[in-house]
Amino acid sequence: MTEKPSELHGDQLLAMLAALSNPHRLRIMGWLASNGRNYVSQLARDLGISRPLLHLHLQKLEDAGLVTSQMELSPDGKALNFFAVAPLDVRLTPALLAAAAATLTVQPE
């Protein structure tokens, strides 16, 4: 996700930052960035977390546009859901923050 300040909507930025604010999700992103794409069961083993918890965190990351998923069949016919880091190049600058703030639709509580 390569974004210019005027292209990154404030709600998108909030979703990305919220997704990355969780230590499990940051670890998932770090693992995928270092090791490349992988399927859920292997990720769960490598990260030492349960598959249901991993699914929850992967869904948050995917909703925020930080990871992508693709179903594939293994040689033995099993369906495997592979996840990878989405293309990402966001530089937090004052200009990006100002542009994002101007496009927010989410209202503070």
UniProtKB/TrEMBL annotation:
Family annotation (Gene3D superfamilies): Winged helix-like DNA-binding domain superfamily/Winged helix DNA-binding domain
Residues of the HTH arsR-type domain: 15-105
Domain of life where this protein originates: Bacteria
SMART domains from the UniProt entry: HTH_ARSR
The protein, known as: Helix-turn-helix domain-containing protein
UniProt source species: Duganella qianjiadongensis
